Model the fold of this input.
Amino acid sequence: MTISVGDTLPEATFKETTSDGMSEVKSGDLFAGKKVVVFAVPGAFTPTCHLNHLPGYLENRDAILSKGVDDIAVISVNDAFVMAAWEKATNGAGRIRYLSDWDASFTKAIGMDTDLSAGTLGTRSKRYSMIVEDGKVTALNVEDKPGEAVTSGAQKMLEQL
Done:
């Protein structure tokens, strides 16, 4: 089943690397009582994700937060070490959260998994963005073409907030 507007997100545990080391981030803690913008990418450092999708959110971070958003998170089916390296390479530390869905359990639970084995990536996430308010999806934007970040990009998100 694919997640839809109005649905409550399932319980999940992400990995995040901080200055204190690797930690677990429970979805309940991430979303409870908050308005969070989430966007997901097929892979850290992959061309569209690295050069287009992520930069839009970093550049528009303050504008997004000014709309009453408590947090911004990027999720990818990569391990936490790759996500930490991506955070460092993009100067994203302290600006948005880089969350690892290392085993794709969250991605599969919300029906956003896709098989990119033909491109040597294996199971990954579709490219999407969503607004989550207290654990409930209030907006959802899924890209039709995996090489684009328009429907799920920061500009579209700003229009929805």
Q: What stands out?
A: The chain has a mean pLDDT of 90. Strands lie at 13-18, 21-26, 35-41, 71-76, 97-100, 113-115, 123-125, 128-133, 136-142.
